[in-house]
Specification:
- Helix content is about 60%, strand content about 10%.
Amino acid sequence: MDIDVQGVSQLRATLAEMDEKSLMRQGFVDIFLQPPSLEELSRRLHARGTDSPQVIEQRLERAKAEMECASSYTHVIINDQLEAAYDQLVALTVSRV
């Protein structure tokens, strides 16, 4: 699932109430995908050319706030190089199966 930091917080609270033997609780893994920097994220968003400057600014503000929550995740992947980030993501998810 791809959910924001607020959704992850709610999911964690729900899982904490479940029996420890629950497959849902045992299979849960949280991974924060993070841009290398806010400057790089800004560059990428502008390069896409799909959002207005106002929307980009809103996205950057939200990203900044969410990046402050990264340390609460079990795993953090820096999306600096797409293939390397993808390989890390696959390695984490495959090891859970």
